[in-house]
Write a structure and sequence with these properties.
This protein has 18 helices and 19 strands. The chain is of the alpha/beta class. The chain has two domains: about 230 residues, no CATH class; about 300 residues, Alkaline Phosphatase, subunit A (3-Layer(aba) Sandwich), CATH 3.40.720.10. The chain starts with 6 loop residues before the first helix and ends in a 9-residue tail after the last helix.
Length: about 675
């Protein structure tokens, strides 16, 4: 007879299960409110539950998730451990202890991520942005290995203590509550029926209440297994999208219609289920012309013997250029260049939230690979090519995407014999001698050249071993919190200051080698950086906010006008125009209503959010919740019939058109 059929087991199991469910349910509900403010809302919150029927519905759905998940967990562990010969009651206690430890770890990790990234964070999207799951875990270990070891040790100790305590209780024959006639078989049957009921309920719920689908599957431990299971069982047409995913497949029986599908113009089918059949005639002529021009670049014939230097300022936010710390400028060298006449458009924007896609698209002049890059333009015109980078170009994917290894001079962190393994990037001060060596050689060659430089000191976690020029603050990773934002700003700005020193040294080398008068130098961020500006977010690539998308841009020695609203996608065309057109007399920053920038989070073929920035206007669209916002206001459901959301429809139309026109071009890859 099973030991779960014994009287003590009949007393023990029901209340044991109910207690575990109650603990999990309350912990999740409290954590969701603390982490997401789901019953109140706040900055960046696009899921808010105000009415009592919404709140009760959410709680009921969460309770069902919890009952089914705890039941499945206990059932699976009971099967496994009893197969290994362990008595079932002991196996049950061990399974419960493991569940509590897993729940504690899950809530702790989610709370830590939310305190840094807010509810904009998506684990899988983040892993794509940093180079895949393995690269993500490698970076996390590099940055947080001490915290991981300490936290893991604490959880192991907690788990061992729980096991020992349960053993002590068993030895005293303490029981919980009792019911009549409970067997192991009835537990299994009840759990299975409960799980089937939850699956059926969630399938219906996902259609009538999308917010529950997004919240429970993405933000709770108990929702993860059911999200995957329901997604698999409701993908009726086998197109890889289901009714339960975010966004849902609202054409479940047609494999040609699903979210992020390529919409073919004027074929009578709305493949991506957004705005109806794609009609390119709905776009302004200048927008459509620009999109078409970016999909393919003819070989350029450079008529001007102008040198070009492109300097990337890692994670330098837009306000760094004019920032001061206790009266000391953060970027005095770039400020000096602007005072001397260098152009500095205030509307410079990143198109993507991470370095690799941003720089790939900069060299391509397009969101997708048009088959050539800015490097090809210089190589085809016989220019010498140099690359000096604080990053490992192979690891970051630059070699695969734009061929930065096929150059005449290359130095990156792989060649740095003093590399700090905690940071894995070379500081600007050790890149300067390499820059000077290349420029000195080119001065002797007396031939035009292209030089790409990437200063990486100011990348998170801002630990590069640089002299503390701006303040004395020094923070470990665990000390970087919203409460210590002022100290964090000093730490960050100090790293930016050393990047600026590298920029100044580069300009001095150009001057010393007699190259400055015949060289145009572009200084630009790869993306911005949030430093708890709104009390939530740290880093980049998790939201379409001004501090994350807007960066610094300074052009010294420009020979053509520079647009006010400008992105990485515009750099290639501007460089080509400077090398093929006669110089204008007085280059300036120019503004026109047509200037705008498309942004996205995630993959360019299946983004989670997209946005469009014009002078004085910002429009965002969230694919997962079908919500939109204007000028960083409140998130609202998207209504394609609303005249107030015309800007949103234009954003979606331009995104669809860009996808169609690039149907034969590949995206960036790690």
């Amino acid at each position: 007879m099973s030991d779960l059929s014994q009287p003590a087991a009949r007393d023990f199991l029901p209340r044991f299960f109910a207690t575990l469910v109650a603990l999990t349910f309350v912990a999740h509900l409290v954590a969701l409110q603390v982490r997401e403010s789901i019953f109140g809302g706040g900055w960046l919150k696009n899921l808010v539950y105000v009415a009592w029927d919404e709140r009760l519905g959410l709680a009921f759905a969460l309770l069902l998730f919890t009952v089914a998940s705890v039941g499945l967990w206990l059932l699976a562990w009971l099967k496994l451990l009893t197969l290994l010969g362990m008595p079932r009651r002991r196996a049950l206690s061990l399974a419960a202890g493991a569940w509590v430890a897993l729940l504690a770890l899950d809530l702790a990790v989610r709370q830590q991520l939310a305190s840094i990234f807010g509810d904009a964070f998506d684990l899988f999207e983040f892993s794509r942005g940093v180079g895949g799951v393995l690269a993500m875990f490698r970076n996390l270990w590099t940055w947080y290995h001490r915290e991981i070891l300490l936290g893991g040790g604490a959880l192991i100790a907690l788990f061992v203590a729980a096991v020992l305590l349960s053993s002590a209780l068993r030895s005293e024959r303490h029981t919980w509550w009792g019911v009549d006639r409970l067997s192991a078989r009835s537990v299994q049957v009840t759990t299975a029926l409960g799980c089937l009921a939850v699956l059926a309920f969630l399938t219906v719920l996902s259609q009538i209440w999308p917010e529950t689908r997004v919240l429970l599957t993405g933000d709770t431990l108990v929702g993860l297994p059911f999200g995957a299971l329901v997604s698999a069982t409701t993908d009726f047409d086998g197109d890889g999208y289901s009714q339960f995913e975010s966004p849902p497949d609202t054409a479940p029986w047609d494999p040609d219609q699903h979210p992020h599908a390529l919409d073919t113009p004027k074929d009578g089918i709305d493949q991506d289920l957004l705005l109806g059949d794609l009609d390119l005639d709905g776009l302004p002529d200048e927008v459509l012309l620009e999109l078409r021009a970016r999909t393919h670049y003819d070989q350029a014939q450079f008529s001007r013997r102008l040198n070009v230097v492109l300097v990337i300022l890692e994670s330098v936010r837009y306000d760094s250029l004019r920032a001061e710390v206790r009266g000391v400028p953060v970027m005095p060298n770039l400020q000096s260049l602007v005072a001397q006449g260098a152009l500095a458009p205030d509307g410079f924007q990143a198109t993507a939230g991470f370095t690799t896609p941003s720089l790939s698209q900069l060299f391509w002049g397009n969101t997708f690979n048009p088959g050539s890059s800015l490097l090809d333009d210089f190589r085809d015109n016989g220019r010498k090519l140099g690359v000096v980078s604080g990053y490992n170009l192979e690891e970051e994917g630059f070699e695969r995407n734009i061929g930065l290894d096929k150059v005449d001079f290359l130095f990156d962190s792989r060649a740095d014999t003093e590399l700090d393994a905690r940071i894995d990037t070379t500081p600007a001060r050790r890149l300067v001698p390499q820059i000077d060596a290349f420029l000195t050689q080119q001065a002797k060659n007396k031939a035009p050249f292209f030089l790409f430089v990437h200063f990486a000191d100011s990348h998170f976690p801002y630990l590069q071993d640089n002299e503390r020029v701006l303040g004395e603050s020094s923070l470990s990773r665990g000390e970087m919190t919203a409460a210590r934002r002022n100290e964090l700003l000093e730490v960050y700005y100090n790293q930016v200051h050393h990047i600026d020193r590298g920029c100044g040294a580069l300009m001095e080398s150009l001057q010393r080698n007699g190259l400055r008068d015949n060289t145009v130098v572009f200084f630009m961020s790869d993306h911005g950086e949030s430093l708890f500006d709104d009390g939530i977010l740290l880093g980049h690539g998790t939201a379409l906010t001004e501090v994350m998308t807007q960066g610094v841009m300074v052009v010294a020695g420009a020979t053509q006008d520079v647009p006010e609203v400008f992105s990485h996608l515009d750099v290639r065309a501007l460089v080509r125009s400077m090398l093929t057109k006669p110089p204008v007399v007085r280059p300036k920053v120019v503004r026109s209503p047509a200037q705008h920038v498309l942004h996205y989070l995630g993959s360019p073929t299946s983004p989670s959010k997209i946005g469009l920035t014009r002078a004085g206007e910002q429009v965002d669209y969230d694919f997962e919740t079908a919500r939109t916002r204007l000028d960083a206001g409140a998130w609202e459901p998207f209504d394609p019939t609303s005249t107030k959301q015309e800007a949103v429809k234009q954003l979606l139309l331009e995104w669809e058109a860009m996808q169609w026109l690039n149907r034969d071009n590949a995206g960036w890859q790690y």
